[in-house]
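Holo prediction — alpha-D-ribofuranose.
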Amino acid sequence: MTQRKIIIDTDPGQDDAVALLLALASPDEIEVLGITAVAGNVSLAQNAINALKVVELSGRNDVPVMAGCPGPLRRRLETAEHVHGLTGLDGPDLPDPQKRLDPRHGVDFIVDTLMAEPSGTITLVTLGPLTNLAMALIKAPMIAARIKRIVMMGGAYFEVGNITPAAEFNIYVDPEAADVVLRAGIPVVMASLDITHKVLTTNARLDALRAIGNRAGAAVADMLGFSERFDLAKYGWRGAPLHDPCTIAYLLRPELFDGRLINVSIEVESELTRGMSVADFWQITDRPKNVFFLSKVDDSSFFALLTERLARLP
Ligand code: RIB
Ligand code: CA
């Protein structure tokens, strides 16, 4: 596989951390040009620290980490400590990072990197609210044509919402940002709850991660063992959904997934359905087909890939 150049925008969160580790463990296929933190699961400042901790855990201190926007375009920030813990990365006891933040603003890093690299060669992977990417598109609209593809974790349709009955968290936090991104004419692959709810971290899968025997495997098992509590209590399933790593797994092994090219539009007016991702799955309208909406996954192969790659880390 040729190496893909990506920028990862993230609000770590335990599942973000697993996605970051999966990408950083796959240098032959993925070149992570940089990681930009955004406000979401917890505050921007804490998310940035968490991103530094995860990069250090991976041993890939060559990858720069930048802080981006501290809150949504228009709305008050709503966070998710009730799921991820006060630090956003509760579970393992990771040391305070020695690595320092790169002083560039995350939005500037996205714009400058897209302008410096050959057009059409960079994939944006977004794991949190889309504030940074939307701000980059507002600041420098010409980058839209230069982005190869966006692979995002966000949205929901048949699985309905997880932060409200209508909306998935990443979209709910900043619906205006999601609207800007989905209207920008950039190819989007959407890993919504409709796919992540089919990727469940069962006890056996968690045991396999811990059995890897390295620091990364132990930390991931501790992370997911913490964050799964909320979803297991809520859904009563045999395992908690593993959201953000679906994006990186799609980049590494797209054949594990299937989906449909459809229109997805974002509700930004209604308070009742704020942030709802309205997916025209049955293609009833003539709205532009702006999203490849993932709907099927080989979850066993997904976890085999994740376990094998985490074993490559320290
Ligand atoms: O709804 C799930 C998403 O919200 C994931 O990205 C998780 O990390 C949280 O940000
Ligand atoms: Ca996230």
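READOUT: The pocket of calcium ion (ligand 2) is lined by residues 11, 13, 15-16, 41, 127-128, 244 (CB under 6 Å).
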